[in-house]
Each structure stands twice: as structure tokens, then as C-alpha cells.
Write the C-alpha cells for this entry.
Amino acid sequence: MTRTWSWTKSRRTMRGLIFAITLPLMTENFRKRLNEYGQRAFARLSYPIVRMVEDGANRLVTVGWVGLIGFPAFYWFWGYVIPQPYESLLLRGIGTAMALAFVFARRWPPGLRRWMPAIWYIVLLYVLPFFFTFMTLMNGMNQVWAMSALVALFMLILVVDWANLIVLSSVGAGLAILLYGWVAPDPQLPAQLPQYGAIYLFAVVAGVVFNFSEEIVSEEKRKAMLTVSANVAHELRTPLLSIRSAGEGLNRYLPRLIDAYRQALAAGLPVQSIRARFLDDMEEVVRRLISEVEYSNTMIDMLLANASEPRQDIQRSRALSMRECVEQALARYPYNPSTQRDKVRIIGLSDFRFKGVQPLMIHVIFNLLKNSFAAIDRKGSGQVDIVIRPGATANSLIFRDTGAGIAPEHIPFLFRRFASFGATGTGLGLAFCKRVIDSVGGDVSVRSELGSFTEFTVTLPPLEQSSIEPEAT
């Protein structure tokens, strides 16, 4: 009996010990997942707004003028021409001030401009769902304001995507109802609420479906564009191969011909004179021709790699040396101009091994190099430092450039496909890097200071020899 009790107590103690050990791990895992989902949701909602602000400066100014004229005009019209039961000079004054700010959107100081997407989101929330819902409720949901609220809803459908339509319309209407219950002398739900509410709900659902289907069509167009780009890239291989073969032939035999010409000229043979500068230029042109072909081929390789799905190649994973991948990438990268190579240095002699596909990792390094050089070109100066840092629980590859940096409002969207905020670029490179690193269980992060530096950190899990096939010899 004592032995049974002791065994039962030991099992309970063991279960309690296991629970005490695993609970923090489970909690930490849940926290990480929750944080990851929160970041994804934030990026999903804010990216369309940031793009709207980035690409639609003229549109923001136009909307500002509409609000600047509309709010005071309708205050006078509904207050004196066709008087309505309720008007608010305060609420219209706030809307007018918001509109006035966007009339001068192009003159915002840089420190305030970075907050423009967030301010624009607040303006949309206030001007369309909140203001019109509150005014409709305060006016007893009469016909004038019911129609006005419906027009505001349709405007919101035209301006934002389906996810932001759901968030803005629900949050704006909810805040308006709360304010109505607080300030109204005798808050009561209007008798017309069921009829008009059904119409508004139908409009929201229709807007969500319309915008979502449009997003699906846009995604199909993007996939078709990638397919066409891949086909064009493949077709370019043949003429580039011919040009490279001709260039290598010229590079092999042209120096002999030039040397023979110079010997004939020195011997006094009757040959037509060619300026010495032109002879030197011919040799340089051939070398430049081969270099340009190599650059074009590498760019085509990057385009095809960026447009592909790296998970299709993950079965070819092997144990790789990170230092070897970096050195191969630096040796193969098509520096343009060649002086770019002098701006790159590997810090330290460290190395680590990881599970991956070498061509994919080399293309990840290509993309990080390309981004660093683009930032340096924008600034006009800079250096690229590459740090290989092994660790007990995780290994890191760090790319740090002292180029132009990245605006803080752009950082959450860098790894999103087609998210490009520069004058050039497709927005595919960093998304490709993210997919490759995710496919091997790693992570890639970025921190930057505008005008100072940008640092990308690729984090990879430690190598498990039991799960890796041996490298081919």
C-alpha cells in the first residue's frame, strides 16, 4: 500500500515538474505566435494605406480641397437653407481642419510626413464612417442624413480595400454610437434603423465582396506578369549566349591581331594607321561587353529565382558553409561599376554550417548586396559590412550598409511581395529572401535609421547532423 502511494505521488510530482517546465515554453510560443499574427494583421491593414499615401499625393490634396469646401458649405446649407434638426459647428470645424492639413500635404516637414499614413487613416475614420453615422443618429436617421451616410459608405468602398473597409466602417460606426449615447439628451434607436441598417449592411458586404474579388483578379494579373517575365528572361538567354561567345572569341584573338598590327607598323609594312587610343579602347570594349553580358545573365537568374517558390527546392537541402556561400556570392556578383567590390568587406573569420540549398542562399546574398548598393548609390557614399556570427542557439548572417537608410513607415512592408518604395525595383527581392529563409526554419529582420544605415539579419537554426544528408564529394 505504501509502495503504491509512493509510486502515485511520484507520478504526480513528475507530471507537475513536466508541467512547470513546459508551461513557460508553451506561453512563450503562444506569445511569439500572437505577436507574429499581430504583425501580419498590421501589415495587411496598413500597407494599402501607405501605398495610397506614397502614390497618391495629388489625390490627397484633391480630397483636402473637397473637405475644406464641403464641410463649411454644408454647415451653411443644412443649417440655414434647408435646416436639419441637428448641426455641429465643432465636428465640422474638426473636419475642416483635417482637410486643410491635407491641402498642404506636399509642404509637410519630413518629421511629420512619416506619420502621414497614420494621420490619413484617422482622417478617413473620422470623416466618413464616424461623422456621418453620428450626424445620422443625431438627426433621427431622417431621409437626408440616411442618404448622406450611404454616399459616405460608397466613398469609403471606393477609397480602401476590403479589410480596411470592414475595420473602418465597424470602428467608425461603433465610436459614433458610443458618442451618440453619451451626448444625446434622450438617446433612442431610430425607428428606421432596421430598414436602413439592412441597406448599409448589404452595401458593406457588397463592397467587401467587390474589393476582395478585385484583389483576387490583381493577384492573378501579378502571377501572369511573373510568368511572362520568366518566359522573356528565358528567351533572352539565347542572344546573350551568342554575344558572350562572340565576346570571348574576340577577347581571345583580338590582342593577337592588335599585337600583329603593331609589329607590322614597326616594321614599316604598308598598313593603315590606327590611333593608339582606339587600340586600347577596343580591348576595353571587349572586356566591358563580356562584363555586361555576365551582369545581364546574373540579373536574369535573380529575376527567375525571385519569381519562383523556394519550397519546391527544399528537398535538395544539404549542410552548407555560410562563409563559402558568402565568398561564392561575392565572387560571382556582377559589380557595376567594378569599384563596388571595394566597398564590401567580411568582418572576422567566423563561420557556421546550416541546412539549405546553396543556389538559393547565394541569390539571397545577391539580393541583399543589390539593396545595399542601391542605398549607397542614393546617398552617394557608404560601405557594406558582412558579419558571419555563429551561436549556441542560432546562427546569424548580418548585412550592414551605411547608405541612405529606410523610412520607418516602410520597414513593416519590406518583405511583402511587390512592396517597392524606391524609384527602381520590383519588390520581389526581399520577399524572395524571406521565403527562402522561412523555408529552412530561419528568420530575417531589418533595422534602419534614415540617412545613416540599414542592417539585415538572417537568423538560421543550428545544424542538426542527423537531419542532413552528407554533402556530395
Observations:
- Residues 193-266 form the longest helix (74 residues).
- The longest strand covers residues 453-460.
